[in-house]
């Protein structure tokens, strides 16, 4: 039986997925702190681009909750549907400009740091397209979505519960 199936009688109720609201009740300080960090990080960047990054990082991390949440946010901001459809294959899609490619590559490199060191040329590549302030904001935005992915994905927040 599947360890993630709440209907499985062999799984302790403590192993069942958490709802987002339950997480907020159990750790009430976490959500406002992460949202504050998100606001600070996002302040120096184009919001549509940030949402595209959040979608891609959430895909990499296998977080369905965050992927669904940020796809919806990106749609509301007017991010091109084709870009949202093909962000998982952005290198091959032919839809992304050089700046977006550099941003997505940097997001993937930072997200993969637990498995591989940051490539030596990662900062050089992103610096060709962003200011130092934008790079710092982007790094904070990437770190924040990675934190959310570990919470929402790790606790298996249901997609239907996305706020």
UniProtKB/TrEMBL annotation:
The record, for Gene3D superfamilies, names:
AhpD-like
Q: Can you give the residue ranges of the Carboxymuconolactone decarboxylase-like domain? A: 29-109
Name the SUPFAM superfamilies for this protein.
AhpD-like (SSF69118)
Please give the Gene Ontology molecular function terms for this protein. Answer: peroxiredoxin activity
InterPro entries named among the record's database cross-references = AhpD-like, AhpD_core, CMD-like
Q: What is this protein called?
A: Carboxymuconolactone decarboxylase family protein
